[in-house]
Amino acid sequence: MPMSRAFVDRRHAAAVLLVPATLMFAAYAGSPLPTSKPEDVGMSSERLARIGAAMDRYIDQELVPGTVTLVARKGQVVHFEARGNRDVEADAPMTTDTIFRIASMTKPVTSVALMMLYEEGHFQLSDPISKWLPEYKDMKVALPAGAERLGTAVRLVPADRPITVQHILTHTAGFANSYRGLSQAELAKVSAPQGKDETIGDFVTRMATVPLNYQPGEQWEYSRATDVVGRLVEVISGQTLDEFFRERIFAPLGMEDSYFFLPEAKLDRFAAQYEPDESKDNKIKLADAPTKESRFVREPHKYFMGAGGMVSTASDYFRFHQMMLNGGELNGVRILGRKTVELMTKNHTGDLPIWLTGPGYGFGLGYSVLTDGGAAGNPSSEGTFGWGGAFCTFFWVDPHEELIGIVMTQVRPYTHINIRQDFQVLANQAIVD
Hints:
Layout: H1 5-24, E1 27-28, E2 31-32, H2 45-60, E3 66-73, E4 76-87, E5 92-93, E6 100-103, H3 107-118, E7 140-144, E8 154-158, H4 165-170, H5 184-191, H6 200-207, H7 225-237, H8 241-253, E9 273-277, E10 283-288, E11 310-312, H9 314-325, E12 329-330, E13 333-334, H10 338-344, E14 361-363, E15 368-370, H11 373-376, E16 385-389, E17 393-398, E18 403-408, H12 419-429
Antiparallel strand pairs: 1-2, 3-4, 3-18, 4-5, 6-11, 7-8, 9-10, 12-13, 14-15, 15-16, 16-17, 17-18
Helix pairs in contact: 1-2, 2-12, 3-7
């Protein structure tokens, strides 16, 4: 899928025009984002300009279709750019209000939703989830069978402790996943939706029949635990997760472009999703067109995954995490208390290896937490929290520097490129105070 020279030229021209336009107006759902000159908040305009050049290199090599990047410090957006195309086949340029599949960047929103109920006195982190989901009361753990059980791949033993709310928020419940551990095949059997009326509650109930990979609390294991978090929100609140998000989070924060399923009226801002073509040096090829047939749009709208599934914009996601950086409040609207935000963004996993991020990280309640910048090779401050999505979206919040960074593109898988890491370096190197 070659890109024409005309496309590349227009991409560069659009980027040049967008920088001043977005910094002056930064229109978001009818209300402006707070903006300032970078120098007013201790950042360098010249150094921030390096971000666009780096994004262009990925676009020119056809490794990503286009990007939206946002950097904010001390509550002020100082960089907000769209580059490349949101839909290469349609020759549609990327814009700062493009709507992206954010996948696992849904998890922090789901975790905040549950902690809002924590603040209302519904549970303690140490409570077993079986208080609300009784199917999780007597879990089994899959272990290697051992030489004494020839011909048997695994043996099952009782879990030696209950799965708690803290376990599911920190990915330490031991749940199986689709790519590691002894219970992959069992998880695959229950993961496929069972019909058009399937809900996340149906899946969560079936997942309770799958043996755990580890004893609860003994290992960090990325999984669909946040689907269980979302199901707890539904059971405790009496609302679907979609209703809770819309009424308790999206509407109060003005997140008018965030959904589980995108309305067809907004398809003209929906990004296409791509995948690398290994036969063509990983140049992108279309995987999911931005049409009403995309699973992020088409009906029925009943399956609301706490672990993923949202679509959103960089502006909306900035507002959500400026709320977190502010200690739970944005523009006079309080979502969480400051002490709850502090609790969520502490390391809850001790020295357990967080294998998905690598060394130097722990995990909080819905977020990775940087514990050792040297070990991680990460210039952000220790205590920085964040996460990413499977379609190559990424964010982090650095409370010490009062910095938020967000990068959005749409390619999966993305492990062959360093665009997320490069962006984090480029945002940090622009701090000059």
